Amino acid sequence: MAVTPIAKAGSISAAEKSPLALFGGSKAIATDEGDTFTWPIVTKEDEAAVLDVLRRGAMSGSDVTRQFEKEFAAWQGAAFALAHSTGTAAIEAAMFGCKVGMGDEIICPSVTYWAACLQVYSLRGTVVFADVDPDTLCIDPKDIEHRITPRTKAIMVVHYLGHPADMDAIMAIARRRGVKVIEDVSHAQGGLYKGRKVGSIGDVSGISLMSAKSLVAGEAGMLTTNDREIYERACGWGHYERFLMPQDLETPYLKEKTGLPLGGHKYRMHQMSAAVGRVQLKHYDARCEEIRKAMNYFWDLLEGVPGLRAHRPPADSNSNMGGWYAAHGHYRPEELGGLSVTRFTQAVTAEGFRSRPGVNMPLHLHPLFNSIDVYEEGKPTRIAHSDRDLRQPRGSLPVTEGIAARTLSVPWFKQYRPEIIEEYALAFRKAAASYRELLKEDPGNPETLGGWHFFAHR
Question: How many CB atoms lie within 10 A of CB 70?
């Protein structure tokens, strides 16, 4: 039975006043969810595309992949697209394309998935972490410029959890200081920043297309750029079959290096993934619009609820959340008497949705960026090729280190089902309305919140 939440911000409905399920009351979420969270959407068209590749014995070919690249580049608004086996490989190729090498530095937010930066170790470079903006959860432009040194080659911009970063400010810094901008669009495929597609603003982008993302091609990734030299260097790094003929190349650096992969990598996309990607891309914008309609409705229902804020751009910004990957929201404990996000999410979970506190744990505090010697070179890999100790101890990135206590996961709706969305919103409203009761047995937050790896995807 669907329950319509209150219409006026600040008032409390009878349903919200009912006892929390945590204390023996009825759950807010009672309706069968159906296909509300089903993802990816796989149809006969996807199956036929994969079967065609299988039956032709074309799994290791490139005809489907090259067609996918052409269509993806046109959709993204880029001159070049290069298909990769994973988003991780695409981002590594983007770094190589930007000439990141021995002793070089990239600047990256610490709140992100490891694959936004860890590949720099393979290039014998290193990473300097910057703080995040507390509202966007993306890299904070105000914390970038003072971290640029003569060794800085690129700024890694992650459009985190689908929210576009402040690209105007970031690009202004990059152009002024002569460094490249790499966009990690793995959370935000098709999203807009002031009317422009994320991934089309920086010098190059790397995009994951693995099966949990909003745009899916299986286990796959894509690099896009308007810079031919970056594209050709990326081809050379892991796509040896793309540069067998010197006459096809424009970059002098590559003309004498044709035929073998410069990095010793074979990073091409499997053609069954390319076949799936072509079909998914064709339907993506319409499906993405459905996701945005559902997610915006959910957050509109929570407008004005104490303790909760939407993680989305302002409505008048001409920016949006793409596919709203791994949806999260802001939590404001000070508006709920200091109630911990841990206790709040316990109450929401009891209502029928497993909400989790926190986001990705800060990378700058992980041993891999402090003490681990990956290549047995006699010192931690983070500083193995640096002329200074650039490790960043606890306390060095205050917003990053405190953000987990102020964020929580929310449902990632794939279909607009108002009656179901209303029940999920009610679960959050009930928890907020009963915060005084929850405070009585609040255990507080543990020392660490969030995780290093994947989010829940529903």
Answer: 12
- Average pLDDT by stretches of 10, the chain with 458 residues: 44 82 96 96 98 96 96 97 98 98 98 97 98 98 98 98 98 98 98 98 98 94 96 91 67 70 93 98 97 98 98 96 96 98 98 96 97 97 96 98 98 97 98 97 93 70
Could you please state the CATH topology (level 3) that the domain comprising 44-278 is classified under.
Answer: Aspartate Aminotransferase; domain 2 (3.40.640)
**Cβ neighbours of residue 407 under 8 Å, at least 6 residues apart?**
137, 311, 328, 329, 330, 331, 341, 357, 358, 359
- Indicate the pTM of the whole model: 0.95
Distance CA 400, CA 130 (A): 9
Residue 161: HSE in the Cβ half-sphere, 13 Å Cα cutoff: 30
Task: Quote the distance between the C-alpha of residue 12 and its chain's center.
Answer: 35
3 state SS of 120: helix
CA atoms within 13 A on the CB side of 280: 27
**DSSP string across 304-324:** T-TTEEE-S--TTSS---TT-
Backbone phi and psi for residue 161, each to the nearest 5 degrees, phi listed first: 55, 25
CA 398, 400, 402, 407 dihedral sign is positive
